[in-house]
Amino acid sequence: MDGDIPGLRWSRGPSASLAILGRFAVNISYNIGLQYAAELLPTVVRAQGVALIHIMGYVASILAPFVVYLANISPELPLLILGILGIVGGVLCLLLPETMDTEMPQTLADGEDFGKDQRFWDNPCFPRITPR
């Protein structure tokens, strides 16, 4: 019995797993975007930023049927697109500044300065060990 990928037997399990993983990663990226908008955007533009993220989510919902339709060209194409979008979104989230224990920006000037004092690889999951 052939699966979804031509030439490979029993490939439905890996294909379904990749599809679920891609969808999961896209949802995580979207939710992280909403969370970061509430934390990073200055108060004066926060509503517009959150609205823009919602609009981009609706645009993605409009484009989703076209991505699914690409399966007529190649069965792997929708999985590849979802997987790549999820991975790119996750990697880009790693580049956002850390907001833990910091004062949130209130003005546009505060927003421009926010995160400038942080190093590129600062991460609360892997705190820097200072020698005693």
From TrEMBL:
Note the InterPro entries from the entry.
MFS_trans_sf
Q: Where in the cell is it found?
A: Membrane
Residue intervals passing through the bilayer: 20-38, 50-71, 77-96
Keywords, A to Z, come to: Membrane, Transmembrane, Transmembrane helix
List GO terms (cellular component aspect).
membrane
On the tree of life, the source organism's domain of life is: Eukaryota
What membrane topology term does the record carry?
Answer: Multi-pass membrane protein
PANTHER family to which the protein is assigned, alphabetical: SOLUTE CARRIER FAMILY 22 MEMBER
Query: Which protein is depicted?
Result: Major facilitator superfamily (MFS) profile domain-containing protein
Q: Which organism is the protein's source? A: Leptidea sinapis
